[in-house]
């Protein structure tokens, strides 16, 4: 097992403590004590507790952006892209479940300077989804009457809410859940030609 760095220990400790006690219920002194480091070690890696909370968000949003861009670039058709991009999105909600839960519960306490950076990255992700929906409409895979922005927000909202109810030891894996999400999304936006492609690619749930 790889030994954790001081920065990793602080982050992991903060995740546990913020989840248990809430952001305002935890002090830097407590984080330092549980992480078995010093205040000097803390401030060498994070300038403040706010910066630590921001890092919790940045860890998972950076992975979302990286994997979503890879999905967009490495798949051919808009239908393949949107399916792969959704798997990239839900992967993060599985692997980084603690990060996401803590941030969604506590992120409101961040100062505006951090929120601005976060909003920039979220906007970048939103534009990637909008682009693939727009591509699909132009390509004839997605219905021309759908709203690109509303479809994008519906997709993001569908996944975002999973942090409230998804359990890693639950009856369905995140991969199985994502196949349901993709089925719901595709059936709502594809044209007849798009439907045939989705069937051929086995991207729909068929009884």
UniProtKB/TrEMBL annotation:
Residues 4-64 form the HTH tetR-type domain. The keyword DNA-binding applies. This is TetR family transcriptional regulator. Keywords: DNA-binding. Residues 27-46 bind DNA. SUPFAM superfamilies: Homeodomain-like, Tetracyclin repressor-like, C-terminal domain. GO terms for molecular function: DNA binding. InterPro entries: Homeodomain-like_sf (IPR009057), HTH-type_Tx_Regulator (IPR050624), HTH_TetR (IPR001647), KstR2_TetR_C (IPR041490), Tet_transcr_reg_TetR-rel_C_sf (IPR036271).
């Amino acid at each position: 097992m790889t030994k954790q760095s001081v920065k990793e220990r602080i982050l992991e400790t903060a995740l546990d403590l913020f989840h248990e006690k809430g952001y305002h219920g935890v002090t830097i002194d407590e984080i330092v004590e549980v992480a078995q480091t010093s205040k000097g070690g803390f401030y060498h890696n994070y300038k403040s507790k706010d910066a630590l909370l921001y890092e919790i968000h940045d860890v998972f949003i950076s992975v979302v952006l990286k994997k979503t861009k890879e999905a967009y670039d490495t798949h051919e058709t808009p239908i393949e892209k949107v399916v792969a991009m959704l798997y990239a999105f839900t992967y993060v909600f599985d692997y980084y479940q603690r990060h996401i839960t803590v941030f969604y519960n506590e992120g409101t306490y961040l100062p505006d300077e951090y929120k601005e950076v976060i909003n920039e990255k979220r906007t970048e992700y939103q534009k990637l989804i909008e682009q693939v929906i727009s591509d699909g409409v132009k390509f004839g895979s997605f219905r021309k009457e759908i709203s690109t922005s509303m479809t994008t927000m519906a997709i993001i909202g569908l996944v975002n809410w999973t942090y409230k109810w998804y359990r890693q030891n639950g009856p369905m894996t995140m991969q199985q859940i994502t196949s349901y999400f993709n089925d719901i999304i595709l059936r709502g936006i594809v044209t007849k030609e798009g439907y045939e492609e989705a069937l051929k690619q086995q991207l729909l749930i068929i009884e």
